[in-house]
Write a structure and sequence with these properties.
The chain has one domain (3-85). The chain contains three helices and two strands; from the N terminus they run H-H-E-E-H. The chain has helices spanning 3-13, 18-33, 64-77; strands spanning 50-51, 61-62. It has a two-stranded antiparallel sheet with strand order 1-2. Helix 1 (3-13) packs across helix 2. The structure holds zinc ion.
């Protein structure tokens, strides 16, 4: 997971303050460091075989179920659900 890629993806969503972007990026890194899927929080697993579509270089490892979710959503809607929709993000405190 590259901090710059995650930051870029979050900024691309267009509705977040920079403080929030940094906070969310840190939260996702924290999940990855604990070997948990940063998208759904499930784990533990050292190495996810799948990668999220949210970054251009696919540097964010996620679990198989989340990868399936993304693929289905993209096929249905033409859009990959953005990182801000991930349930792992703690939105408290703005
Ligand atoms: Zn997951």
């Amino acid at each position: 997971m590259h901090r710059e890629c995650v930051t870029t993806a979050l900024i691309g969503f267009g509705r977040l303050s920079l403080g929030l972007v940094e906070r969310y990026a840190r939260q996702l890194e924290d999940f990855a460091e604990r070997c948990l899927c940063p998208r759904c929080g499930e784990g533990p697993r050292a190495q996810w075989a799948s990668a999220s579509l949210v970054t251009g270089d696919r540097c964010v490892g996620i679990c198989e179920r989340c990868a399936g979710d993304e693929t289905v959503s993209e096929m249905r809607t033409g859009v990959v659900p953005p990182i801000v929709t991930w349930p792992t993000l703690d939105r408290r405190g703005g």
